[in-house]
Amino acid sequence: MSRKPTVLVVTTMDTKHQEAEYVISCIREAGLDAITIDAGILGQSPVPVDVSREEIAGLGGSTLSDVQNMGHEGRALAVMIKGAVMKAQELYGEGKFDGIFGLGGSMGTTLGTSVMRTFPVGVPKVMVTTMASRNTRGFVGTKDIMMLHSVCDLAGLNRVTAKVLHNGAMAVAGAVSRPAGKSLNDKPLILLSTLGTTEACIRRIRNQLLLEGKEPVVFHTVGAGGQAMDEMVVEEAPVAVVDLSLHEITDHYFGGDYDAGPDRGKSAPGAGIPVILVPGNADFLVTGPLEDAKKRFPGRAYHVHNAAITALKTSVEEMAFLGKHLATICNHAKGPYRVLIPSEGFSAFDSEKSVLWNPEGRKAFVDHLTKEMKISNLKIVPYHINDLEFSEAVLVALHEVMAE
Fold first, then answer.
1. pLDDT tens sequence across 330-353
2. How far, in whole angstroms, is CA 112 from its chain's centroid?
């Protein structure tokens, strides 16, 4: 690298110039350089910047004057985000920077993380924000964004903000100075999905794949996890996928908290990648605290996983829907696939001793799945999903589809 390692600082200089200047000074004291994008809307930057708000508004398809007169902060911000993303991608494509730093409240965090989410995993991303102690999924999405809570408002420098901003600056400086680099691992990549309730199964599969010289990467299906796995199918071109935890589909359609969107599970079959599909964890929906679960889903069977998470029994109708939906995904598959059904239980909660025991739901799932898809690609395995025998059946099926 002929230039110094460089950090792109994305902020609104009309309201955050003092904090941004301090961060830039910290970065430069660490021996790095910085580039500033000013995407502020009101006022003017009192200091010079590398990329002006006028340029950002123009790239967003408008003028700064028009943005300032939109009369709606959300639409105005959307224009500036579009322009900031375009400029950041242009600069990165030209090799001008190595990591991204953002700071702000709800609007500044929306701006900064919107830019960050357009960059691949591995590009350092640090966001100092008043929003980090809240639900950050809308900001982080499926990317490796470090959210650092500012503790107090970012309204000038004080004994609190100076410490937090310095730590954030050093975090991005350290990551940029010692980049991970491109993986030298040339082992065949296999993506897998799970929750803790199917961990016994996935652990055996993962260990066997390691012994076979594969690189298994496991995703925790809490909404963002399954979505991230589906995105990585496109980004990393795995040789196969073992989608063992499909409950995010029912969570999406029936109001559960672990919602991965309407396209969950479609990526690998649609890309022609060999895939194993298992209805793991489909026996329950995930919600928040018990009292909230009772209000949103009255009359269900509930399992309190912890103070923040309640699992509730999936209805027969919901399981029937999942069977039809999965059959549709399979019927549009462009590559080899198998659906394996553990007939004695879909998760650790789906057992005779549990209030979530769901044989009626499993039957409805199988009945509606088999009406719609090719039976030759379906295997009903007479074991629980966490039994050794089911793990072995998945591995056999995986080797079959990889050989086709």
1. 999 999 999 999 999 999 999 998
2. 17
What distance in Å separates the CA atoms of residue 85 and residue 92, rounded to the nearest whole number? Answer: 10
Whether the pLDDT of residue 374 is over 80: the answer is yes
Residue type, 265: G
Q: What is the domain range of residue 319?
A: 189-403
- Give the alpha-carbon dihedral of 124, 127, 131, 134, to 10 degrees: 20
Q: What is the mean pLDDT of residues 374-387?
A: 94
* Residue 13 located in a structural domain: yes
As a residue count, the chain comes to: 404
Question: Which amino acid appears at position 314 of this protein?
Answer: T
Residue 1, pLDDT above cutoff 60: no
**Does residue 182 lie within any of the structural domains?**
no
User: Smallest Cα–Cα separation from 222: which of 146, 283, 142, 113?
Assistant: 142
CA distance linking residue 105 with residue 72, whole number of Å: 17
User: How many folded domains does the chain comprise?
Assistant: 2
Q: Is residue 259 part of a domain?
A: yes
Q: What is the pLDDT of residues 84-101, one digit of tens each?
A: 999 999 999 999 999 999
Displacement of CA 390 from its chain's centroid (Å): 28
